[in-house]
Amino acid sequence: MAVDATGGRYSGAAIALHWLTAVLIVANVALGLSMVPLPIIPRKLQWYAWHKWIGITVFLLTCARLGWRGVFPAPPPVAMPEWQRRAAEAVQVLLYTLLLAIPVSGWLYSSATGVQVVYLGLVPLPDLVPTDKALAGVLKGTHVALNFTLFALVCVHTAAALKHHFIDRDPALTRMLPRTRPKGSIG
Q1: In a domain, 7, yes or no
Q2: Roughly how many angstroms between the first and final C-alpha of the chain, as a whole number?
Q3: Mean pLDDT of 128-141
Q4: Which end of the chain, N or C, is surrounded by fewer C-beta atoms within 10 Å?
Q5: Does the residue 150 lie in any domain?
Q6: Helix/strand/coil (H/E/C) assignment for every residue in the chain
Q7: What residues make up the domain containing 131?
Q8: Tens of pLDDT, residues 67-78
């Protein structure tokens, strides 16, 4: 992959999918952490449903992102040492893998508990495994561990973007930010 000192911008669709996914992940982590300690009440059950809907949406958005990226590849990386480029690629692959694996692990967990996932309250998804309390415990632990791994990688990803912006002063971060129009511009 060629190195571009100016760092071409991502497409508007790629930027929108990136930030929509980021917002949904933050919302879902907050929802997940908030719902677990609640007693079994209607609010908790509704929050679990929302948590599942957001997770499936993140899975679908990630599939869309990968499809988009297949048709419209990412711009070449900004100039950086080879080890940083390789680390960035590894983190990117791991992030995409987790954005697919975490919703599936949650779906598997839900299936193992005997609670069917009904996407947006409209589309019943098939159970992926039979009801099994022991398996549910393993899958819950897996789901939690994958989420903590995602949190750590998002921190690394964010720190790297901020380092590129404030220390290296390269366009790595700004090429993924939505463009803003100057005040007074039309259209």
Answers
A1: no
A2: 35
A3: 98
A4: C
A5: yes
A6: CCCCCCCCCCCHHHHHHHHHHHHHHHHHHHHHHHHCCCCCCHHHHHHHHHHHHHHHHHHHHHHHHHHHHHHCCCCCCCCCCHHHHHHHHHHHHHHHHHHHHHHHHHHHHHHHHCCCCEECCCEECCCCCCCCHHHHHHHHHHHHHHHHHHHHHHHHHHHHHHHHHHHHCCCCCHHHCCCCCCCCCCC
A7: 12-176
A8: 999 999 999 999
